[in-house]
Amino acid sequence: MSKTALIFWGGWEGHTPARSANVVKDILTSHGFDVRLEQGTAFLADPQIAQLDLIVPVITMSTIEKPELENLVSAVRGGTGLAGFHGTMGDSFRNEPEYQFMTGGQWVSHPGNIIDYRIDITRSDDPIVAGIESFSYRSEQYYMHVDPSNEVLATTTFTGEHFASIEGVVMPVAWKRHYGKGRVFYSALGHTADEFDVPQMKTIFERGALWASRD
pTM (2 decimals)? Predict the structure, then answer.
């Protein structure tokens, strides 16, 4: 039987949610997933999402109804995987701390906006990043508030060029965590769908999503 996944998308258009959702759909389909694509959050109210193997939010900011959030949180606690990237998971539903508790972090700034920076792999023994060397990247360098229980797989170091007070700060870029019985993966990379053309970015997300999926 095929694994099942839900991708729900929307919010701020600057993150190309529709295009990015379809890129993720193609990735998961290539691994045999039966993928459902939904715009907005209404489908999250369906109790059947607890039977899904994986949920991928591709939605920036926006809002979510309490029953939808409660159902999503319950599904992940019960074993449904959650995987996402950039602001389409790390800056969804700013008014919902329970969502942030589940995901393990919240975007707060990207000094300098689109800049060149470096990604350092910190857990080369982990299958999600195995074989990937530290690499240069051009995008928003995310400054986040993060959960100390995250298992960090990659980091970036702020130079202070764009905000002197954070010079030398080492910030998680990719992590995995457990939330109840569910597994959660996040990567801060992926400002637009075009960034999936970067092999390291795509590979890290692809492996992370597969890891998060229910066994």
Answer: 0.98
- Average model confidence (pLDDT) for the chain? 98
Q: Could you tell me which of 86, 153, 100, 89 has the C-alpha nearest to residue 122?
A: 153
Residues 180 and 84: their CA atoms lie apart, in Å, by 18
Residue 50 DSSP one-character state: G
Could you report the per-residue pLDDT of 101-112, keeping only the tens digit for each?
999 999 999 999
**Under a CB-based contact definition with an 8 Å cutoff, are residues 212 and 83 in contact?**
yes
Q: How far apart are CA 97 and CA 168, in angstroms?
A: 28
Taking a C-beta distance cutoff of 8 angstroms, is the pair 172, 181 a contact?
A: no
**Beta strand 170-179 pairing with 151-157:** antiparallel
Q: How far out from the chain centre does Cα 129 lie? A: 15
Beta strands 54-60 and 4-11, pairing class: parallel
What is the rounded distance in angstroms from the CA atom of residue 129 to the CA atom of residue 206? 10
What are the C-alpha distances in Å from 126 to residues 36, 48, 131, 175?
Answer: 29, 32, 9, 11
| Cα dihedral: 141, 146, 152, 157 (round 10) | 30
